[in-house]
Amino acid sequence: MQETRTISLSVNGEPSTIAVPVRQNLVDFLRDTLGLTGSHVGCEHGVCGACTLEVNGAMVRGCLMLAVQADGAEVITVEGLADSGRGADLRQAFIDRNALQCGFCTPGMLASALEYVERGGSSERSAIREHLSGNYCRCTGYQSVVDAVCDVIDGRAQS
Amino acid sequence: MKAAEFRYERPESLAEALALLEDTDLDATPLAGGQSLVPMMNFRLAMPGMLVDLSELDDLKGISEDGGGVRIGAMTRYVDLAGSDLIARRAPLIAMALPYIAHAAIRNRGTIGGSVALADPAAEMPALLLALDATITVQSSAGSKTHGAADFFLGMYETALEDGELVTAITIPAPAPHRRFAFYELARRHGDYAMAGVAVSATGAVGAGCTDFRVAYFSVADRPVRATAAEAALDGKAPMDGAEAAVAALGEIPFAGDLNAGIATKLHLSGVVLKRALERL
User: Fold this and answer.
1) Chain B contacts to A (CB-CB under 8 A)
2) How far is it, in rounded angstroms, from Cα B116 to Cα B114?
3) Which domain holds residue A153?
4) Looking at residues B123-130, what average pLDDT do you find?
5) Residues B158, B198: one domain?
6) Where are the beta strands (DSSP E) in chain A?
7) pTM score, two decimals?
8) Which domain holds residue B37?
């Protein structure tokens, strides 16, 4: 019998109280139990960034946090960002700039980029690259991702 | 992969945590930020029978003044160090190095105490503490004691921590007047573990000769190491004036190769990072 523990948390604004195996990673809980498959599972050791999501206002690795540690937390996944419209300009910029091809890295890339934009990051390309260094993309070569983030920062500065 | 099974505890007091950590039969292991322990568990390199989650222990969080220096609770996250004026003023070397410690999403969870207790030879923090002459406070149910950084890191993932002991705080002494700091590392990807890195501190006015050099390396040996012969070669000189002699003295380091680089490459890279750090001192 694996040990379980009941946790209460809010996921994309929806509260739930549910028993989770204590060994289950947060991203597996979101995908397998709640059916929120937007957060992707890549390397499972914190290197690729595909599972990056928001917990209590900070972007974290969903594979390096246990679901049981999210007890009492507010979790926002890429689905929640889409539903609320937060970061809509960033998603549009990814489309406009072709900042994805296969899309596997995109949910994590959006999460990391959104944190950078919302914290007032500069549109200097090297600074954007530094911030996104924890998210692997094997399709784009990153140029178009940096283009998209630049567009959003410039766009928000003008509006 | 996924972690093996374990018992999970989230104590609400330090005393309760320390009592739980006495369970050596279950290999009771503290869970701080989890940014190294959880991947090790996912790979089943670590399979503790009990995890003691420290996240509720607010006493272990926070940064405070300590006689001109600064005291950092073990559960203080990197992101909080990065946002701290006190760290920027009293421990500027740490502020300098923080952007190079993993990635933003990792710094949002990772803690200073976790890094210190793990003692990964490739990690920045142990070498920073060595360069800063920091002390590490550990506590068990029997009481607390302190270790100088030089006496704490004993080998690869090996520290002076004994069974049942927990790192509770790191104390960085007040910097001497005209104390200067520099940091440099070489990594394949920004935020990844460095192939070689160095933290340097010294006392002296800009452009003048400096004394009391501390040159602390990470990711070149089985633990963070000071290059004392290089320090002696630099003593009394302006940093760049002593650079060549210091680089020539690096053979004293007990280099160890890793997946990134062999011993000869580590020696070469150690010279490169030292010169670049001295340029920035």
Assistant:
1) 1-8, 10, 31, 34-35, 38-39, 42-43, 51, 53, 55, 79, 99, 102-106, 108-109, 189-192
2) 5
3) 87-158
4) 98
5) no
6) 4-11, 14-21, 52-55, 58-61, 74-76
7) 0.96
8) 7-53
Q: Which of A77, A111, A139 is the last residue of a domain?
A: A77
C-alpha dihedral (A111, A113, A117, A119), degrees to nearest 10:
60
First to last CA, chain A: 56
Question: Are both B142 and B109 inside the same structural domain?
Answer: yes
User: Of the candidates A2, A65, A115, which has its C-beta nearest B5's C-beta?
Assistant: A2
Q: Are residues B69 and B122 in the same domain?
A: yes
Question: Using the beta-carbon criterion (under 8 Å), do A129 and B99 form an inter-chain contact?
Answer: no
Q: DSSP states of B2-26 as a string?
A: -PPP-EEE--SSHHHHHHHHT-TTT
Subunit contact B105:A66, Cβ cutoff 8 A: no
Residue A9 inside a domain? The answer is yes
Question: Are A61 and A42 a contacting pair, CB within 8 Å?
Answer: no
Q: A98-145 pLDDT, tens per residue?
A: 999 999 999 999 999 999 999 999 999 999 999 999 999 999 999 999
**Residue B200 counted as domain residue:** yes
Q: How far apart are CA B85 and CA B65, in angstroms?
A: 11
Q: Are A46 and B191 an interchain contact pair (Cβ–Cβ within 8 Å)?
A: no
Residue of chain B whose alpha carbon sits nearest to that of A43: B1
In a domain, A82, yes or no: no
Do B34 and B96 lie in one domain? The reply is no
| Angle value at C-alpha B76, between B172 and B128, nearest 5 degrees | 40
Q: Which of A77, A101, A131 is the last residue of a domain?
A: A77
* Residues B139 and B155 both lie in one domain: yes
What number is the ipTM of this complex? 0.95
pLDDT tens for each residue of B158-196 = 999 999 999 999 999 999 999 999 999 999 988 889 999
**Surface of A (71-100) touching B: CB under 8 A:** 71
User: Which of A63, A69, A131 is closest, CB to CB, to B104?
Assistant: A131
Q: Report d(CA B63, CA A68) in Å as an integer.
A: 27
Measured CA to CA, the distance from residue A151 to residue B89 in angstroms comes to 35
By C-alpha distance, the chain A residue nearest B53 is A69
Question: Does A106 map to a domain?
Answer: yes
Counted domains in chain A: 2
| Chain A stretch 113-152, residues whose beta carbon is closer than 8 A to a beta carbon of chain B | 115-116, 129-131, 133-135
